[in-house]
Write a structure and sequence with these properties.
Length: 424
């Protein structure tokens, strides 16, 4: 005959079942807190894609290495995560994390708790991160994220929002959200936007939230970043969102930067951010053409410098010739010509092309700047040009400038040339 359980009995069984994970996590915390040694270690299964040598480094995949390896023969082995926690007054004061390999034998003074479930370990470690001061919280989050089949999204969000936690702990929590379940991307994205736009929070955390947005799987954070940058472009968060977009390399981010770079209603500082972002590591030849075509329309010095700097960093004969043309353009603003000259050497202009600029230019200040450029180059051709200027320049100030530049040269032949010039 089958007996039916009473409703109170069923409720009791349900309560016991649902509280089991918490009890297991608490048992690990109790075991660690009650250890007689000053250090405790435990191991747990590692998530796929993570490996290490068990001693000096851990790889989390995609070229991300933590620690260092001095032996090229070391193998990166997928294996259990091993955490050594140092204790003081039953509190965790430091964590050391290893992955793979057999690892060293348990040291004297270390209590070995053996292998625990990855969820149990993660629960304990996140509990440490939610309370610990200093670097321990950051290290605890790193260790927790190495375990297999753990979803820490809600607790990472709680730590990321908690302004009483150390800055590095909060940054680690927000960065850890990038590895969350792809089914929670919308929820995570919304939470990161809220953190990034919270003006009462510290900028280091807000920046970390923007960075995490740009690294979410499937590019889920790009559109929120574009929205932040386009609707808040006069604020800190808008400029930072644009900077993060420039580093992302996402095609949608590139297109957004191109559209922002061509707008005429942006403050100089904001447009400069877009122009610098357009000219960074993902720049194309078409982007360089766009930057050169935009330059004449720009009125702000920051925006102009952003174009000049981007083209100088990109280099190449086409950009060098464009900068040379700007230096020679007597219709251009004097400051624009001087700034273009400053960027020419960085763009890879040859010494002969720089030396050829002196005679065609009549502007005294531009010639002064060229003398400074020749002095910094300091090779034989540039030095000979300075000697020529010292001998032939009719403007006394320019002549003195060339002589002063040459006076720093210890070459006996230059010393003799200077003496001849002075005695003439």
């Amino acid at each position: 005959m089958t007996k039916c359980l009473s409703r109170p009995a069923i409720a009791l069984l349900f309560a016991i079942a649902t509280s089991a994970p918490q009890a297991f996590a608490q048992s690990l915390a109790n075991r660690i807190a009650s250890a007689s040694d000053r250090s405790v270690q435990f191991s747990y299964p590692v998530r796929p894609g993570v490996c290490g040598d068990g001693r000096t480094y851990i790889s989390t995949g995609s070229g991300n290495f933590y620690g260092s390896s001095n032996n090229s023969a070391d193998q990166c082995l997928a294996g259990p995560v091993r955490v050594v926690a140092d204790l003081a007054d039953r509190n965790v004061i430091a964590l050391r994390t290893y992955v793979g390999g057999a690892g060293p034998a348990v040291e004297s003074g270390v209590t070995n708790l053996g292998t625990v479930a990855s969820t149990e370990a993660a629960d304990f470690l996140i509990g440490v991160a939610a309370k610990a001061d200093g670097r321990v919280g950051r290290d605890a989050i790193f260790a927790a994220l190495l375990g297999e089949n753990v979803d820490l999204t809600p607790r990472l969000l709680d730590i990321g929002r908690d302004q009483n936690r150390p800055l590095e702990t909060r940054r680690a929590a927000l960065s850890g959200l990038v590895r969350s379940d792809s089914r929670q991307l919308d929820r995570i994205g919304s939470a990161l936007v809220q953190i990034a736009t919270n003006e009462s929070d510290v900028q280091g955390v807000r920046t970390a939230a923007l960075s995490a947005l740009s690294r979410l799987d499937q590019g889920a954070g790009i559109q929120p970043l574009v929205q932040l940058a386009s609707s808040n472009f006069t604020s800190w968060v808008g400029r930072e969102a644009m900077t993060v977009l420039a580093r992302s390399g996402d095609p949608r981010a590139r297109q957004f930067l191109r559209s922002m770079a061509q707008r005429t209603d942006l403050p100089d500082e904001v447009q400069a951010v877009a122009l610098r972002g357009l000219g960074r590591q993902y720049v194309t030849g078409q982007d360089a053409n766009l930057l050169r075509s935009i330059y004449p329309r720009l009125t702000g010095q920051r925006s102009r410098d952003a174009v000049l700097g981007s083209l100088a960093d990109l280099g190449g004969s086409e950009n060098v010739q464009w900068l040379v043309g700007l230096v020679r353009d007597e219709k251009a603003a004097p400051e624009s010509r001087r700034r273009a000259l400053q960027f020419l050497a960085r763009a890879g202009a040859t010494t002969p092309s720089l030396l050829a600029l002196y005679e065609p230019i009549s502007d005294t200040q531009m010639r002064e700047n060229l003398i400074g450029v020749y002095s910094r180059i300091s090779d034989k051709a540039a030095t000979d040009k300075l000697v020529w200027i010292a001998k032939n320049e009719q403007n006394p100030a320019l002549k003195r400038g060339a002589i002063k530049a040459l006076s720093r040269n210890s070459d006996p032949n230059i010393r003799q040339a200077l003496q001849d010039i002075v005695e003439r």
